[in-house]
Amino acid sequence: MEIKLRHELINFLIEKFDLKNYLEIGVDNGFNFNRIICETKNSVDPAVGKYNHAKPTHKMTSDEFFENQAKNYAPFDIVFIDGLHHSEQVDKDIENSIKFLTDNGFIILHDCNPLTEEVQIIPREKSGIWNGDVWKSIVKFRNSDSNLGCVVLDTDHGLGIISSKIIKNEKFEYDLGYKSLEKNRLQYLGIIKSIENIFK
Fold first, then answer.
1. What pTM value is reported for the model?
2. 78 part of a folded domain
3. Smallest Cα–Cα separation from 109: which of 70, 158, 147, 41?
4. Residue 102 gets which letter from DSSP?
């Protein structure tokens, strides 16, 4: 099956593994959330400032949600992280998601594979395509002590997949400068072209 967009990957995993409980962090205009087919769906977005057109089920930051609300809806089978695209926040979103994730659950991340240095600069400098530095969170997680595997599907600006169903990679030396990413993209991100045969 060819997957091009984030909702296609999420719906594929939901159907393949019979996942029931979905959480989305960062709703924006609802393009992705409205296309997810799952028994239970929740979304989190503060919907403030310049990008305030989101209509989440929980209008708050992801930090607030995990601290005060997540226990009422967890455990989650699949969490999609597409909120603030700053690696420090993405690190926290990953860590918090794992706390409320089922043992065989999935975390999906958007914008993991920036193709130019400009689109990953923090803070965001202009409108248009902007991935932020989510890629740094992927590199750090792939070198963490977590027993969860992590790869990036090479589509839709890079879709990160974290799960116990993915074989854990060996640790490697890395540098979080963009030039290092350009030289070591396949290793740093665990780039895959297809999701076939990646699950245990």
1. 0.96
2. yes
3. 158
4. E
